[in-house]
Specification:
Rossmann fold, 465 residues, Alpha-Beta Plaits, 17 strands, 17 helices, alpha/beta
Length: 465
């Protein structure tokens, strides 16, 4: 591949951000280690170039230099999480795609997490590489404090120390070359300012709000960030998957790069085979959108361990996909412990939801560990892009799902109206205020159990086939 063309994005506060793209398809924005970024010099390093070329065979790779580093504007004074978000937003807005995947490393993890929470409709996947939610987990370590001290006394030794931490302490020549690249990436003054600002970042409180499918990859022997930081991410992000790999290098391109690339690519490709041949998602169509969510999946993992919890989630996936296939549902994506699906009619969506809940109830009768699934359904005209759906109709369906309990099916009033006269029973749950929506939303529970009381139902009988 030829060297990618460097372009510039303009942030809302007037900072020029250098970036390049390589390949075609859904963009994967690789957010390299905070402060040590130079997108032109990286391309001249064989290991970086080979990795980027491989990744670009299946998707578009996007790299950018954050403010104060590389080829981006150096004459800046504002360093903060909000400033970092402006850099990322500017680059994403320049891409010809409504959806992106984010791959942050090290100190860029909190930036990507905050962006995914603020723009859930834009982030298709979130891959957190050797990172953390709370900066103090990193900056309180003796190694990092020592590195900060070197910035004021010996710039060359500081970069060589940092390079060994990134590339691996067993490496020699590779670390020296990378240290030289670091020295070209930023000045000691800019790096200190950026690091001091980032040392106060803490996005722990918003981790439960992440809705993008999330993969957390951490190397076992990495001195910092520690394994505890990775476990915290995995325990607080709903449906997140934690993968541990051997090695002590923070840099993705260092150590066992092949294992890292395979893990990331498999995650980004997940669900493609299941959706092959599914109904095309047309922007002009009215879609009935269905979400599933395994209730208490994080607690299941804590109690049963990763392997056993994963077995239960596979059961959820099997039952859900069988129901989707039987009722004409199109799987849009899976989020680890939940699905998003689309239907051409409200009737089909409700029949599928009921079939799912009955299948889970039957399975739970004889199972040692129950799988309690909540289902939310809404209908509208979402935006279709890259075999995905997003917009107000989708966001509302997700919010409705979060209000349901295990075994329940909650639907918006529009779904009840579309299915009127089809034999479904609905229980009125009243108007509910949902985060992100100005007006209250009237919700209904679908009565699917034989013992459900029809007293407050909006219909009667059993759903027809």
């Amino acid at each position: 591949m030829t060297e990618p063309r460097i372009q510039y994005a303009q942030t809302k506060d007037g900072v020029s951000i250098a970036y390049w793209t390589l390949g075609e398809g859904l963009p994967l924005v690789y957010m390299y280690l905070a402060g040590f970024s130079h997108i032109q010099l990286e391309w001249e390093v064989p290991a970086f170039r080979r990795a980027y070329e491989r990744m670009a065979q299946k998707r578009m790779i996007v790299r950018y230099d954050s403010r104060g580093s590389g080829l981006s504007a150096r004459d800046v004074t504002e360093y903060s999480l909000e400033a970092d978000l402006l850099d990322l937003e500017a680059v994403v807005d320049c891409l010809d795609s409504e959806r992106v995947a984010l791959l942050p490393a090290g100190g860029n993890g909190p930036v990507a997490i905050a962006y995914a929470v603020r723009h859930p409709e834009k982030v298709s996947h979130l891959v957190l590489w050797c990172t953390y939610a709370r900066a103090s987990d990193l900056w309180e370590s003796p190694q990092v404090k020592g590195l900060m001290g070197l910035l004021d006394t010996d710039w060359e030794l500081a970069t060589e120390t940092a390079a060994h931490a990134v590339i691996g302490w067993s490496e020699g020549e590779s670390s020296r070359k990378y240290a030289a690249l670091m020295r070209e990436s930023a000045t000691p003054e800019a790096l200190r300012a950026a690091w001091v600002a980032s040392s106060e970042v803490d996005v722990t409180a918003v981790l439960p709000e992440v809705r993008s499918p999330t993969l957390i990859v951490h190397r076992r022997h990495l001195p910092f960030p520690t394994m505890d930081a990775a476990r915290q991410l995995a325990s607080k992000i709903r449906g997140a998957r934690l993968v541990l790999q051997e090695g002590d290098s923070m840099g993705i391109m260092a150590g066992d790069w092949e294992a890292a690339a395979q893990t990331i690519e498999e995650f980004l490709d997940e669900g493609k085979e299941a959706t092959a041949g599914a109904v095309s998602l047309a922007a002009e169509d009215i879609h009935t959108i269905l979400f599933t969510d395994v209730e208490g999946s994080t607690a299941l993992t804590d109690r049963l361990g990763d392997a056993k919890a994963r077995e239960l989630l596979r059961e959820h996936e099997r039952i859900t996909r069988e129901a989707l296939k039987a009722h004409g549902g199109s799987e849009v994506k899976t989020m680890g412990d939940g699905f998003m699906a689309s239907f051409s009619s409200a009737t089909k969506a409700l029949q599928c939801a009921i079939a799912m809940q009955r299948a889970f109830a039957e399975r739970n009768e004889s199972a040692e560990e129950p799988i309690n699934v909540r289902v939310g359904v809404n209908a509208g005209e979402p935006i279709a892009e890259d075999d995905d759906l997003y917009g107000t109709a989708v966001n509302l369906a997700a919010r409705i799902t979060a209000l349901a309990h295990g075994g329940e099916i909650l639907v918006a009033n529009v779904v009840r109206e579309l299915a009127e006269g089809k034999g479904f029973m609905f229980g009125d749950r009243g108007e509910v205020a949902l985060r992100g929506f100005d007006d209250p939303v009237r919700l209904f529970e679908v009565r699917w159990r034989p013992f459900d009381s029809p007293a407050d139902a909006g219909g009667s009988g059993r759903p027809g086939e």
